[in-house]
TrEMBL record:
GO molecular function, a single term: DNA-binding transcription factor activity
Protein name (Swiss-Prot/TrEMBL): LacI family transcriptional regulator
Domain HTH lacI-type: 4-58
Pfam family, one: LacI
InterPro entries referenced in this protein's UniProt entry, alphabetically: HTH_LacI, LacI/GalR-like_sensor, Lambda_DNA-bd_dom_sf, Peripla_BP_I
Organism of origin: Streptomyces hainanensis
Keywords of the record: DNA-binding, Transcription, Transcription regulation
Coiled-coil ranges (or none): none
CDD domains in the record: HTH_LacI (cd01392), PBP1_LacI_sugar_binding-like (cd06267)
Chain segments carrying region Disordered: 315-346
Length: 346
């Protein structure tokens, strides 16, 4: 069945196409009874305005875009992005705004998508994720005049508003908790070093461990289970006196693989080794012991970003917005350090 048109509504209502246009767009030119009858017929036929026609008339598409530049093999496993997109979509559904989602192989491809979307009036603005330490997207979006909201710390964001959570404070929460349990050798398995939030976490980790006199070490990985496991094995292959007694992972997938790797080396969690995951998810509760994790409302984070982008696309000046801080959900994967009164570290 073909999509209903304004001409179909006009034919059913016995009026001109111009009268239908006046009624549907809330403009004068038709009587109130006629307007109500046209609107009722449009609803009955399931008529929806054409985004292309709307873009031609007022320059707006009624859609927002999100481009993700990550390997599909890691993205498909990460609950974080699924929750983030769910939160964005839940907010956009309030006024039936579509979300155009695309994958890109690198920043050059992502920028090409932005230019194409903006030139063809396919989106009214975009969400920018995974800001890099040296990021080419920000100046391009500023030059285009394209409304955008960065999901990440307001560093290197230029004039673009940011919705962010304090990663440095989250690192401090974890390290201080582990230090309180007697851990003096704490490692971190990080995400890719070129990402801004990874750099923020690394700087905070080095500052806090150094300030507490703790031996801290960071190994870079890529959020995948394979690299998380490999980094864990490398850390635990050190001489006993240099092995970490606790590890913080930059996502839940790497933490799960780290748990498996540690067990493969004959270590018990948490008697020999404590583990903490960044970004709590259902996965953290599906293993034994369940994983202690940093928790925040990721769906709410996405919804907040969607509200800010809607405002920016409407022409409002949008300030940076800080999300509520992460809290540490304590579960079975953390306990006293083995060299602080617990079992001897093998």
């Amino acid at each position: 069945m073909k999509r209903p048109t304004m001409q179909d509504i006009a034919r059913r209502a016995g009026v001109t196409k111009a009268a239908v246009s006046f009624a549907l767009n809330g403009r004068p030119g038709v009587s109130e009874p006629t307007r109500r009858r046209i609107l009722a017929i449009a609803d009955e036929l399931g008529w929806q305005p054409s985004s292309a026609a709307r873009a031609l008339s007022d320059g707006r598409s009624g859609s927002f875009g999100l481009v993700i530049d990550r390997p599909a093999r890691t993205l498909g496993l990460e609950p974080f992005f699924m929750q983030l997109i769910s939160g964005i979509q839940a907010e956009l559904a309030r006024d039936t705004t579509p979300l155009l989602l695309a994958m890109a192989e690198d920043q050059a491809a992502e920028i090409a998508l932005y230019r194409g979307w903006w030139a063809r009036r396919l989106v009214d603005g975009v969400f920018v994720v995974d800001l890099q330490v040296t990021d080419a997207r920000v100046p391009v979006l500023e030059d285009l005049g394209m409304p955008a909201v960065v999901l990440g710390a307001p560093l290197g964001t230029g004039s673009l508003p940011a919705v962010w959570s304090d990663d440095a404070a989250a690192v401090a929460t974890v390290v201080r908790h582990l230090a309180g349990l007697g851990h003096r050798r704490i490692a971190r398995v990080a995400g890719p070093g070129h990402l801004r939030h990874t750099a923020i976490r690394t700087t905070a980790f080095e500052r806090i461990t150094g300030g507490l006199g703790i031996d801290g070490r960071t190994l870079e990985a890529d959020y995948s289970g394979e690299r998380g496991a490999a980094a864990t094995v490398e850390l635990l292959s050190a001489e006993p006196a240099a092995r970490p007694t606790a590890i913080l992972y930059d996502n839940d997938v790497m933490a799960l693989s780290g748990l498996t790797a540690a067990r493969g080396l004959g270590l018990a969690v948490p008697a020999d080794l404590s583990l903490v995951a960044w970004e709590d998810s259902a996965l953290c509760e599906l293993v034994a012991p369940s994983l202690t994790a940093l928790h925040r409302d990721i769906c709410g984070y996405g919804a907040q970003a969607a509200r800010r982008l809607r405002e920016a696309a409407g022409g409002a000046a949008v300030p940076d917005v800080e999300d509520p801080p992460s809290s540490l959900t304590l579960r079975g994967s953390t306990g006293p350090a083995p060299d602080a009164g617990g079992r001897a570290f093998r």
